[in-house]
Amino acid sequence: MLPEGTFGTSPSSLPGVIEPLAQAGRRHGVDVVVGIIHTAPGLKYNYSVRLPADGSKPAYYTKWHFSPGEPFRKGVDLVVAKGIGLANCMDLNFAAPSRDYGRAGARLLAVPAADEFGNGWQHSRMGLLRGVESGFSLAWSAQWGTPMISDAWGRVLASTDTEGTRAPFVVAVADVPAGPAGPTLYARFGDWFGWVCVIGAAAALLIRRPERQQLRPGRDRSELGEPDRGVGGQAAVL
């Protein structure tokens, strides 16, 4: 798996990028996943592309979420086959599409990412959290950050760091168990537990609001159980 935006392509150059990668995958018996920035007339796409080892048709996932103002066409579709789903970098900042993949039966999510220096470790762990929520293992490949492989229980199986290295590339490799069969409670029912906690906390604050006793005019302070400390609020014995 290669990071987000590993290649930039146009309609004429796309086959020259895809075919050599597909041939390499077929030759070694492995699926290849790669991030591609594809520019077509009047349109720009941020793709995660899966090239199956069996030589079948490539699968293109279009990134769903972008920073404001980025000139990309937004995706709306899941891409999942044989339990493996595709996503892309910032998509893991949000519950969707991760939760949708959990419902669709994805047991491994392949996520090309870019990240930025300084936030790569945190972003990879955000992806890890999505895997725990929705029940899939995660392969996270970042240009500038923390390439990482984790299982559906949040255990980091392999990790490396692209920050602070002059190496031409880094590699993380691990045997990855598939996530549990069937969607998790979170994938199935969504954010209901969080909202129940919010509602319960608000109700508790309303019910247990401190009762304030009011001192009526002419009422002695001792009736409220408070000591009379005199005019100055203090007492002295000589």
From TrEMBL:
Keywords from the named record: Acyltransferase, Cell membrane, Lipoprotein, Membrane, Transferase, Transmembrane, Transmembrane helix
Residues annotated as signal peptide: none
Protein's UniProt keywords contain Acyltransferase: yes
Domain (CN hydrolase): residue spans on this chain: 1-178
Top-level taxon: Bacteria
Compositional bias (Basic and acidic residues): 216-229
Residue segments, region Disordered: 216-238
Gene3D superfamilies registered for this protein in UniProt: Carbon-nitrogen hydrolase
Subcellular location(s) of the protein: Cell membrane
Broad class of where this protein is predominantly found: membrane
Stored Pfam families: CN_hydrolase (PF00795)
GO MF, one annotated term: N-acyltransferase activity
InterPro entries: Apolipo_AcylTrfase, C-N_Hydrolase, C-N_Hydrolase_sf
Membrane protein topology class: Multi-pass membrane protein
PANTHER family assigned: APOLIPOPROTEIN N-ACYLTRANSFERASE (PTHR38686)
Protein's name according to its UniProt entry: Apolipoprotein N-acyltransferase
Gene source species: Nonomuraea solani
